[in-house]
Design a protein that fits this description.
The protein has 8 helices and 7 strands; from the N terminus they run ααααβαβββαβαββα. The protein is an alpha+beta fold and 197 residues long. The two termini are 25 Å apart.
């Protein structure tokens, strides 16, 4: 049974604090429900409860031109984007495409690859996290990357706990064992097609 996202986020914050990760200090304060609802209205999309919980925890990372991508990464694939940037990215990706209307680009590599969360409340992929990476996937079609936001945060926690992610305090950046990371994500996301290739 999957753990509650709010519990996982508390555990992740404790891990980041214990690691003395400056990334935690670079995160924006949480958003309240009223502010989150105002963003929903901008794109006329109702966010899932998991997305709302994520932004009630923190409003992404403060992006800075003075920091490298590795200094802004929460995990191997990701900068956690502030909700205002998610909305801007959403509008850029889907100016008229109704088919993908429920996919929010919440995490990114900083180099044109994104992890989208499907906030559509119906269908077999509701709540799943999708990878959009034309260079990696050789297609514009997103591939299921994580079974849910909770499973993704569980993977991140597992990687921190097992030394797969380590903060280089001197360089203030995340160092990643990518091969081990792939194994964790593959094991904890059995429904996601990306790991079946």
């Amino acid at each position: 049974m999957e753990r509650q996202l709010s519990d996982l986020l508390e555990e992740l914050e404790a891990i980041l604090r214990k690691a003395n990760a400056q990334l935690l200090d670079q995160m924006n304060p949480r958003l309240d429900d009223e502010k989150i609802s105002s963003y929903e209205k901008q794109v006329q999309v109702e966010f899932s409860e998991d997305v709302r919980q994520l932004y009630r925890w923190k409003n992404g990372t403060r992006l800075s031109e003075g920091r490298t991508i590795a200094q802004q990464n929460l995990f191997g694939f990701g900068i956690f984007y502030p909700l205002q940037d998610v909305i801007g990215g959403y509008k850029a990706f889907y100016p008229e495409d109704q088919l993908k209307k429920h996919m929010l680009p919440i995490f990114g590599s900083g180099g044109g690859d994104y992890l989208f969360v499907n906030v559509n409340k119906s269908g077999g992929t509701s709540g799943m996290v999708f990878l959009y990476s034309p260079a990696l996937l050789y297609t514009e079609v997103p591939s299921a990357y994580c079974d849910s936001l909770s499973s993704m945060i569980s993977c991140i926690i597992t990687c921190y706990k097992n030394g797969i992610y380590k903060f280089d305090i001197k360089q203030n950046e995340l160092v990643i064992d990518y091969e081990s990371e792939d194994k964790v994500f593959s094991q904890l996301n059995p429904r996601s097609s990306f790991w079946k290739v």
